[in-house]
UniProtKB/TrEMBL annotation:
GO terms for molecular function: hydrolase activity. InterPro entries: AB_hydrolase_1, AB_hydrolase_fold, AB_hydrolase_sf. Keywords: Hydrolase. The keyword Nucleotide-binding does not apply. It holds the Pfam family Abhydrolase_6. Residues 34-263 form the AB hydrolase-1 domain. Signal peptide: none annotated. This is Alpha/beta hydrolase. GO terms for cellular component: membrane. It comes from Sphingosinicella microcystinivorans.
Length: 274
């Protein structure tokens, strides 16, 4: 099943994946593709500031999906299957190699994909992504209390969970321009993933040396100290990693500091597509 808008450069489509379908939107007509993977409780709309950037759209083919279990996706949540979903999206679009942008939780899927499919990974951009095996861990208040959130969702107290998450420093940091779109996406969040079996542990800091793709690791200066420290460690652990911070950007720095983020992304994408 496929749906398209009347705009020839901005199309919405459905892609068959294990257990259902996921929607994707495309914009631009560049020869090289950038695939955006949104963070937890979000959907493809978090990437609107990138789709609105005419320079990016002229140079690249921009693709954003609703990951399984989020947004309008019709596939059940399963973080472990997301690398397979990326393959399905690339094959659907007839894209051989892609630049992957993984935001927060989706960085785990992006890292797994780059490790499993090096031949199809032109570049890797990680935005506020977590990692396992790094000590010390986050300070109290910096972590995401998933077990508490899972207990609230299981007890049919999803609204309470959403209120707590909306007040978390990872959501409140930054310029404040993300608050309205974040609220809209959070309102649509169904908590399916909290009711599903917990995924396998994500990539460990010690395993990143096997990833050969060039990588850019980004955080906002107003992200939590833990996520910024994780960004430093990932950039060092990746054989071809580089590090950047966005002034005035929070955890969702692509949305609350889009001009700076888009410049970084464009320069990186151009460097790996030469």
């Amino acid at each position: 099943m496929r749906h398209s808008t009347t705009d020839e450069t901005h199309k919405a489509q459905w892609v068959d994946v294990e257990g259902g379908q996921i929607p994707l939107s495309t914009h631009g007509a560049g020869a090289s593709a950038i695939l955006f993977l949104h963070g937890w409780t979000l959907d493809h709309r978090i990437w609107q500031p990138q789709f609105d950037d005419q320079a990016l759209a002229q140079s690249f083919r921009l693709v954003a999906i609703d990951r399984r279990g989020f947004g309008a996706s019709k596939a059940p949540p399963d973080l472990d299957r997301e690398p397979e979903d990326i393959i399905a999206v690339l094959d659907h679009l007839d894209v051989d190699r892609v630049i992957l942008v993984g935001q927060s939780q989706a960085g785990r899927a992006a890292l797994r994909f780059a490790n499993q499919h090096p031949g199809r990974t032109a570049g890797l951009v990680l935005v506020g992504s977590p990692i396992g095996g790094l000590e010390p861990g986050p300070a109290p208040g910096e972590d995401v209390p998933l077990e508490h959130y899972r207990a609230l969702a299981t007890a049919d107290r999803l609204d309470e969970m959403k209120q707590l998450w909306a007040a978390h420093p990872m959501i409140q940091g930054g310029s404040g321009t993300t608050h309205a779109p974040m609220a809209a996406m959070l309102a649509n969040y169904t908590g399916q993933d909290l009711l599903a079996p917990a995924p396998q542990p994500g990539p460990d800091i010690g395993g990143l040396g096997a990833i050969t793709a060039p990588a850019l690791v980004i955080t906002g200066t107003h992200d939590t100290a833990w996520r910024r420290r994780v960004g430093d460690a990932i950039a060092v652990a990746l054989p071809h990693g580089t590090r950047a911070e966005i002034p005035e950007g929070g955890h969702l720095c692509n949305a609350d500091a889009p001009a700076a983020f888009n410049r970084l992304l464009s320069r990186f994408a151009e460097s790996v597509c030469v």
